[in-house]
Design goal:
alpha/beta, 7-stranded parallel β-sheet
């Protein structure tokens, strides 16, 4: 594999880089000359991503967002070449279950809370010193969802975790006020990825959801993350809510009778 000097390049740290938004964002930044730290649970996929680019550009490390010790170990072991982080893309997360309360799995609820909330908190806290080292223009992009604002049957804890992501993003901005780190809550609507496949375990359900609809795709989100990370250092975009044209905010539901 060819060698290139990436010592002066900026670095993005991505959770959930094994598929979907994370993998697309890793490719977007690498193709534009950034270094990438790609993390996730599926090591084989991480290595496939790493192999697409020049040696030294992408550092990959298996990391479990539900395990604080795994997160700390991955960050503590960052090579010097990838230890100054200019952008943190808190993308890793999941939705489990489609049933309304009370027909739910407490275990699935716990997994969503541990991944979507505690995972984001632990990664952010452990990575802050690396972001501060980058100085002006460093940024954190947290993946929320329109489910934070628009409730739907079966969305219960998933939507609540994404509401947490939004408010944590705003509160983190307040805590970091006067510093160099920017924070954005990125809130996509319908997007075609492995989201429904993970949620239902059904390839058929995943395909049916997008039938006769042109949804967002991971590349759309990657381009937005690129835009956010490359604004002038004094510009902070607090929140980006994005839907495909085929999707619109719904009016509140009325139950009669």
């Amino acid at each position: 594999m060819a060698h290139q000097d990436f010592s002066a390049a900026k670095t993005i740290f991505i959770t959930g880089a094994t598929s979907g938004f994370g993998a697309a964002t890793a490719r977007m930044f690498a193709q534009n000359g950034w270094k990438v730290v790609g993390t996730g649970r599926r090591e084989e996929r991480l290595k496939e991503l790493q192999a697409e680019f020049l040696e030294g550009q992408i550092h990959v490390v298996p990391m479990d967002l539900t395990d604080e010790s795994s997160i700390k170990a991955a960050i503590d072991a960052l090579p010097e070449s990838h230890s100054t982080i200019d952008c943190l893309f808190n993308n890793g997360g999941l939705a489990l279950g489609v049933d309304p309360v009370p027909n739910v799995s407490r275990e699935q609820w716990r997994t969503m809370v541990d991944t979507n909330i505690m995972g984001v908190l632990d990664v952010t806290l452990n990575l802050l010193p690396h972001l501060k080292r980058a100085g002006k223009g460093a940024s954190i992009v947290n993946v929320g969802s329109i489910a934070a604002r628009f409730a739907y049957p079966g969305g219960n804890v998933y939507g609540a975790t994404k509401a947490f992501t939004r408010q944590f993003s705003y509160n983190l901005r307040a805590d970091l006020a006067g510093g160099d780190i920017r924070v954005t809550s990125l809130e996509p609507g319908m997007a075609k990825s492995e989201f429904t496949l993970v949620r239902t375990g059904s390839e058929e359900a995943n395909e049916k959801l997008y039938e006769d609809v042109l949804p967002l795709v991971p590349q759309d989100i990657a381009e937005i993350v690129w835009f956010l990370a490359t604004r002038p250092a004094h510009v902070n975009i607090n929140c980006v809510e994005v839907m495909p044209v085929a999707q619109t905010p719904s009016a509140p539901t009325i139950t009669r009778g």
